[in-house]
Amino acid sequence: MAQREMNFQPGAVLHDAIIGAFKMHGGSFERWCREKKINPTVARQATTGQSRGKNGRNILAELVEAAGPEIVRQVYEKRVLEHADELRKGQRR
What we know:
By secondary structure, the chain is mostly helical. The protein has helices at residues 12-24, 29-36, 40-48, 54-67, 69-92.
């Protein structure tokens, strides 16, 4: 698999986007981890940014690819924009 540039900021939003993308096509984060023989805690650390080394980046890239990069991007973008809108509204008060 060719490494694609990741434009995602690891964290809770990205983790939730990946979980949601798996669910949208009948998969699951936990099943993917079992099939790849990757400890779910290690995979979660990659999605949330606690593991940013080469192994963490590789796991994150594989997760995004398996979950569906376009679905992950759409869900991630929607959540980030919603959060930005909430921040703007809070500043206007």
